[in-house]
Amino acid sequence: MRLTIRSLTWAVSSLLCAYQFKSVAGISSDESQKIISNDNNIPGNSPVAYCISPEKSILTINSVILTPSTPIPGQKLKIEATGDLSEDIIDGASVKVQAKVGYITLLTMTFDLCDEITKIGESCPLKKGTHNITREVDIPQYIPAGSYKVSADVESVDHKQITCLEATVEFQY
Questions:
Q1: Residue 155 belongs to a domain with what CATH number?
Q2: Residue 36 belongs to what domain range?
Q3: Which CDD domains match (predicted)?
Q4: Around Cβ 28, how many Cβ atoms within 10 Å?
Q5: Structure confidence by residue, pLDDT tens digits, 36-53
Q6: Whether the Cβ atoms of residue 42 and residue 64 lie closer than 8 Å to each other
Q7: What CA–CA distance (Å, rounded) separates 47 from 38?
Q8: Number of structural domains in the chain
Protein backbone atom coordinates (compact mmCIF):
# COMPACT_ATOMS: atom_id res chain seq x y z
CA MET A 1 0.00 0.00 0.00
CA ARG A 2 2.92 2.36 0.65
CA LEU A 3 3.97 2.11 -3.00
CA THR A 4 0.42 2.91 -4.03
CA ILE A 5 0.31 6.04 -1.84
CA ARG A 6 3.72 7.23 -2.99
CA SER A 7 2.60 6.50 -6.56
CA LEU A 8 -0.35 8.87 -6.29
CA THR A 9 1.83 11.54 -4.72
CA TRP A 10 4.37 11.15 -7.50
CA ALA A 11 1.64 11.31 -10.13
CA VAL A 12 0.21 14.56 -8.85
CA SER A 13 3.69 16.06 -8.45
CA SER A 14 4.83 14.91 -11.87
CA LEU A 15 1.78 16.19 -13.68
CA LEU A 16 2.63 19.64 -12.36
CA CYS A 17 6.08 19.61 -13.91
CA ALA A 18 7.27 19.96 -17.48
CA TYR A 19 7.61 16.27 -18.32
CA GLN A 20 6.21 14.03 -20.98
CA PHE A 21 1.04 10.16 -13.14
CA LYS A 22 2.67 6.65 -8.92
CA SER A 23 -0.24 4.47 -9.86
CA VAL A 24 -3.25 4.74 -7.69
CA ALA A 25 -4.22 1.12 -8.30
CA GLY A 26 -5.62 -0.89 -11.13
CA ILE A 27 -7.87 -3.64 -12.31
CA SER A 28 -6.86 -7.04 -13.55
CA SER A 29 -8.06 -8.72 -16.67
CA ASP A 30 -9.86 -11.37 -14.63
CA GLU A 31 -12.18 -8.69 -13.20
CA SER A 32 -11.17 -9.60 -9.61
CA GLN A 33 -10.57 -5.90 -9.13
CA LYS A 34 -12.74 -3.08 -10.39
CA ILE A 35 -12.63 0.66 -10.64
CA ILE A 36 -15.42 2.39 -8.76
CA SER A 37 -16.95 4.94 -11.13
CA ASN A 38 -17.27 8.59 -10.22
CA ASP A 39 -19.08 11.43 -12.01
CA ASN A 40 -15.89 13.51 -11.72
CA ASN A 41 -13.63 10.99 -13.49
CA ILE A 42 -10.76 12.45 -15.47
CA PRO A 43 -10.85 11.55 -19.19
CA GLY A 44 -8.87 8.45 -20.07
CA ASN A 45 -8.96 4.91 -18.75
CA SER A 46 -7.82 5.40 -15.13
CA PRO A 47 -9.67 5.43 -11.79
CA VAL A 48 -8.47 8.98 -11.06
CA ALA A 49 -11.25 11.52 -10.41
CA TYR A 50 -11.49 15.06 -9.12
CA CYS A 51 -12.50 15.60 -5.46
CA ILE A 52 -13.69 19.09 -6.40
CA SER A 53 -14.60 20.84 -9.62
CA PRO A 54 -11.51 21.54 -11.76
CA GLU A 55 -12.92 25.01 -12.45
CA LYS A 56 -11.98 25.86 -8.84
CA SER A 57 -8.40 24.59 -9.24
CA ILE A 58 -5.13 25.84 -10.68
CA LEU A 59 -4.54 22.47 -12.43
CA THR A 60 -6.95 21.00 -14.97
CA ILE A 61 -6.03 17.44 -15.94
CA ASN A 62 -6.99 16.72 -19.54
CA SER A 63 -6.35 12.96 -19.53
CA VAL A 64 -4.70 10.06 -17.73
CA ILE A 65 -4.01 6.95 -19.85
CA LEU A 66 -2.82 3.66 -18.31
CA THR A 67 -1.03 0.96 -20.33
CA PRO A 68 -2.06 -1.72 -19.95
CA SER A 69 -5.54 -0.40 -19.18
CA THR A 70 -5.95 -3.36 -16.83
CA PRO A 71 -2.80 -3.24 -14.65
CA ILE A 72 -1.47 -6.54 -13.36
CA PRO A 73 0.10 -6.97 -9.90
CA GLY A 74 3.85 -7.49 -10.10
CA GLN A 75 4.18 -5.81 -13.50
CA LYS A 76 4.97 -2.33 -14.79
CA LEU A 77 2.29 0.26 -15.51
CA LYS A 78 2.86 3.08 -18.00
CA ILE A 79 1.10 6.33 -17.08
CA GLU A 80 0.62 9.14 -19.59
CA ALA A 81 -1.03 12.36 -18.47
CA THR A 82 -1.56 15.88 -19.67
CA GLY A 83 -2.80 18.93 -17.82
CA ASP A 84 -2.88 22.72 -17.78
CA LEU A 85 -1.70 25.05 -15.01
CA SER A 86 -3.54 28.39 -14.93
CA GLU A 87 -0.70 30.01 -12.94
CA ASP A 88 2.87 29.34 -11.80
CA ILE A 89 3.41 27.12 -8.75
CA ILE A 90 6.15 28.35 -6.40
CA ASP A 91 8.08 26.79 -3.52
CA GLY A 92 5.96 25.89 -0.49
CA ALA A 93 3.10 24.06 -2.23
CA SER A 94 1.95 20.91 -0.40
CA VAL A 95 0.31 17.55 -1.13
CA LYS A 96 -1.84 15.95 1.60
CA VAL A 97 -2.30 12.24 0.87
CA GLN A 98 -4.75 9.95 2.63
CA ALA A 99 -5.24 6.22 2.09
CA LYS A 100 -8.15 4.17 3.39
CA VAL A 101 -9.34 0.59 3.19
CA GLY A 102 -13.07 0.70 3.72
CA TYR A 103 -13.57 3.04 6.68
CA ILE A 104 -10.09 2.47 8.13
CA THR A 105 -7.52 5.20 7.50
CA LEU A 106 -4.18 3.57 6.77
CA LEU A 107 -2.15 6.72 6.33
CA THR A 108 -2.37 10.50 6.26
CA MET A 109 0.78 12.35 5.20
CA THR A 110 1.69 15.79 3.91
CA PHE A 111 4.52 16.23 1.42
CA ASP A 112 6.24 19.33 0.07
CA LEU A 113 5.31 19.39 -3.63
CA CYS A 114 8.57 20.97 -4.74
CA ASP A 115 10.62 18.42 -2.75
CA GLU A 116 8.69 15.60 -4.42
CA ILE A 117 9.27 16.87 -7.95
CA THR A 118 13.01 17.30 -7.34
CA LYS A 119 13.09 13.50 -6.96
CA ILE A 120 12.19 13.26 -10.64
CA GLY A 121 14.62 15.93 -11.81
CA GLU A 122 12.32 18.96 -11.82
CA SER A 123 12.13 22.06 -9.65
CA CYS A 124 9.86 24.91 -8.65
CA PRO A 125 8.61 27.25 -9.88
CA LEU A 126 6.40 25.22 -12.21
CA LYS A 127 5.37 27.46 -15.06
CA LYS A 128 1.84 28.24 -16.21
CA GLY A 129 0.79 26.27 -19.31
CA THR A 130 0.38 22.73 -20.62
CA HIS A 131 2.44 19.91 -19.11
CA ASN A 132 2.78 16.31 -20.34
CA ILE A 133 4.32 13.35 -18.55
CA THR A 134 5.01 9.72 -19.32
CA ARG A 135 6.22 7.45 -16.53
CA GLU A 136 6.42 3.77 -15.67
CA VAL A 137 5.81 2.42 -12.17
CA ASP A 138 5.89 -1.05 -10.62
CA ILE A 139 2.60 -2.45 -9.33
CA PRO A 140 3.04 -4.38 -6.06
CA GLN A 141 3.05 -8.17 -6.47
CA TYR A 142 0.34 -8.65 -3.85
CA ILE A 143 -2.43 -6.25 -2.87
CA PRO A 144 -4.71 -7.48 -0.04
CA ALA A 145 -8.43 -7.72 -0.85
CA GLY A 146 -10.49 -4.64 0.00
CA SER A 147 -11.86 -1.35 -1.25
CA TYR A 148 -8.99 1.15 -1.41
CA LYS A 149 -9.51 4.90 -1.58
CA VAL A 150 -6.53 7.19 -2.04
CA SER A 151 -6.83 10.98 -2.17
CA ALA A 152 -4.38 13.80 -2.78
CA ASP A 153 -5.23 17.40 -1.93
CA VAL A 154 -2.70 19.82 -3.44
CA GLU A 155 -2.46 23.47 -2.28
CA SER A 156 -0.20 26.37 -3.19
CA VAL A 157 1.89 28.18 -0.58
CA ASP A 158 -0.89 30.79 -0.30
CA HIS A 159 -3.51 28.02 0.18
CA LYS A 160 -5.03 28.18 -3.30
CA GLN A 161 -6.40 24.84 -4.54
CA ILE A 162 -4.02 23.38 -7.13
CA THR A 163 -6.08 20.19 -7.46
CA CYS A 164 -7.76 17.49 -5.43
CA LEU A 165 -7.70 13.94 -6.79
CA GLU A 166 -9.04 10.61 -5.62
CA ALA A 167 -9.30 7.04 -6.80
CA THR A 168 -11.22 4.08 -5.46
CA VAL A 169 -10.41 0.53 -6.51
CA GLU A 170 -11.90 -2.67 -5.18
CA PHE A 171 -9.73 -5.79 -5.02
CA GLN A 172 -11.67 -9.05 -4.67
CA TYR A 173 -9.99 -12.44 -4.65
A1: 2.70.220.10
A2: 2-171
A3: PG-PI_TP
A4: 17
A5: 445 688 999 888 899 988
A6: yes
A7: 8
A8: 1
